Amino acid sequence: MAITKIQSESLNLSDTYDFTGTVTGAGGDMKPAFEAKLSSNQNLSNNTFTKVQFNTEIFDTDNTYDNSTNYRFTPGVAGKYVLSATAQVQNCGNGNIFYVGIYKNGSALKTNNIIPGASDDLSGMITYIDVANTTDYYEIYSRQGSGGTQPLLHYGTWFSAYKIIT
Asked: Which domain holds residue 116?
């Protein structure tokens, strides 16, 4: 790569310099990153926080999401992360609360609740930025209060995360 020398009185187009150094602070790597979804509906019992079992990976840059056993994201790299999830429950019912929550190391980090106005399918979304160390892990839990078991719908339920460049 050539860099043109700029002189105070004019631009000398015949002078060029080969760049062989290292640029720091430019660009970055937003990894690890992943996205996962449900492959089929998952039943949610009434008034019970249930871990959502996102068992199908859309992508996983660094093999940091466990889609078969613990259904959790363990970054393995310290930094700031954007975590997002959405869940869709069928027929939650009028006035019954539906929750979606991000859990860190087994404890609720952030929850979002939605109270429907009708007996329709209901979606909840949550996004949170958190600082992780190398051993932290994140999971998504959901809860519905319809009075009975309701399916968490696979076509509206996903979980993703990526590292923020700071």
From this structure: 27-163
